[in-house]
UniProtKB/TrEMBL annotation:
The chain crosses the membrane at residues 6-23, 44-62, 96-115, 136-159. Coiled coil: none annotated. It comes from Clitoria ternatea (Butterfly pea). InterPro entries: DUF3339 (IPR021775). Signal peptide: none annotated. This is Transmembrane protein. Keywords: Membrane, Transmembrane, Transmembrane helix.
């Protein structure tokens, strides 16, 4: 079965950490701004670092996987411990593929950095450093499609060690 855990975690973090939707760190006039639907290069950098930290913790340290059913979101260490296979899992090296692909897509698809689809008054705007609820929705759908293709259809894996 396909492992939807990295796709689901990446998608949820994309929605939660998109600059300007829930919060923007740093803001334009204050340290933190909430729901301003604007972004900046510094905010995308900080949010990308936060995204990288959270995705590493959830996928590499906790090893969340989602394979058999939606409600089977169990850290793989517990899953393998219950099956008596923990020693085999601990010897395998970490798969950095979902982390690298999702961080790159997070940066490239952050609304307003490279492009904003749809833009205010236009279909697409390049480098506008602004966003809207509709453009966040469209970018989230594009992110979900691309992360699903890369991780499940193509099966990108990057192993360390």
């Amino acid at each position: 079965m396909s492992d939807w855990g990295p796709v689901f975690v990446s998608w949820v973090l994309f929605v939660l950490l998109t600059p300007g939707l829930l919060f923007q760190l740093p803001g334009r006039s204050r340290c933190v701004e909430f729901g301003n639907f604007q972004t900046s290069g510094a905010a995308i950098l900080i949010h990308s670092l936060l995204y990288f930290a959270f995705i590493c913790v959830l996928l590499l340290a906790i090893k969340l996987h989602l394979s058999e059913s939606f409600f089977n979101l169990v850290p793989i260490n517990v899953h393998h411990w219950l099956k008596g296979e923990l020693q085999v899992q601990c010897r395998m090296s970490a798969d950095w593929g979902p982390v690298v692909i999702s961080v790159v897509l997070f940066v490239l698809l952050s609304p307003g950095l490279l492009f904003q689809l749809p833009a205010k008054g236009r279909v697409v705007a390049f480098g506008s450093m602004q966003t809207s609820g509709l453009s966040i929705l469209v970018h989230t759908i594009i992110f979900f499609g691309l992360i699903t293709i890369f991780l499940l259809a193509i099966g990108v894996h990057i192993y360390s060690g």
